[in-house]
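User: I've been trying to design a sequence by hand for this structure and keep getting stuck. Would you show me what you'd pick, starting by listing the structure so we're on the same page?

Assistant: Good idea, let's start from the same input. This is the structure you sent:
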């Protein structure tokens, strides 16, 4: 069986168990904050809330080795 580091986690709880994924999530968080991507605002009562989730991908080098763990926070 593969280690969780060798798999793309389906849930953030799985990702939080491995430092490689936590580091990828922190990199994404810092990028969002640095680029001032979004603001938290009060939701108007007549509007639906926008949901969000983490997407995890392993980027491979030409010969199949792991090049990068990539986490994206999407709405």
């Amino acid at each position: 069986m593969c280690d969780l580091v060798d798999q793309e986690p389906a849930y953030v709880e799985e990702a939080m168990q491995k430092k490689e994924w936590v580091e990828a999530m922190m990199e994404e968080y810092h990028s969002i904050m640095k680029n001032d991507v979004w603001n938290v605002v009060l939701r108007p009562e007549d509007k639906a809330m926008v949901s969000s989730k983490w997407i995890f991908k392993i980027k491979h080098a030409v010969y199949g080795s792991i090049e990068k763990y990539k986490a994206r926070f999407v709405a």
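That's my pick for every position. To get oriented when you compare it with your attempt: Residues 4-37+48-74 form one domain. The chain has one domain: 4-37+48-74.
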